[in-house]
Specification:
By secondary structure, the chain is of the alpha+beta class. It has helices spanning about 5-10, 20-30, 70-80, 135-140, and strands at about 30-40, 40-45, 50-55, 55-60, 65-70, 85-90, 100-105, 105-115, 115-125. The protein is globular. The two termini are about 20 Å apart.
């Protein structure tokens, strides 16, 4: 399963039924992470990461997929350690949906609906893309 295959499968789902347990397991096995907004203040992670964070705002991950708090970020930026950022926006101006997510990680988009209206533009990324290019080269 690729992130694009999964994005096509999830697009069009209704809020509250974003991903099945079987799809979540398949995503986990493939090293994929599905990220979407819920309510007006939660960001859900399913697949290779199963968690939730407060939103909207930025969420930071290290190369192992661990969440970084404010103290961690001071260390990471001070020591120039690599990290990735997921941005979550609630009702951004000009958007056609309530939630819009993005990231500085290669990703695919999918759209969740509520009452036939776009509710969330979510993302799917691969855990492999959290690693630096040097780490990827060492693993091949």
């Amino acid at each position: 399963m690729t992130l694009f295959d999964l994005a096509l499968r999830l697009t069009g789902r209704e809020y509250g039924n974003e991903i099945t347990k079987q799809e979540e397991e398949a995503a986990k096995d493939a090293g994929l992470v599905v990220v979407f907004g819920a309510s007006d203040d939660l960001i859900e992670f399913r697949g290779a990461i199963h968690d939730e964070r407060s939103g909207p705002g930025s969420i930071y991950l290290n190369r192992k997929g661990e969440f970084l708090d404010d103290e961690d970020m001071q260390i990471y930026t001070g020591m120039n350690y690599p990290y990735k950022e997921i941005q979550s926006h609630w009702c951004p101006p000009g958007a056609q949906s309530s939630w819009v997510l993005g990231a500085n990680i290669p990703h695919a988009y999918f759209v969740i609906f509520e009452d036939k209206e776009p509710y969330c533009v979510g993302i799917i990324f691969s855990m492999d893309d959290l690693k630096t290019e040097q780490e990827k080269e060492l693993l091949t």
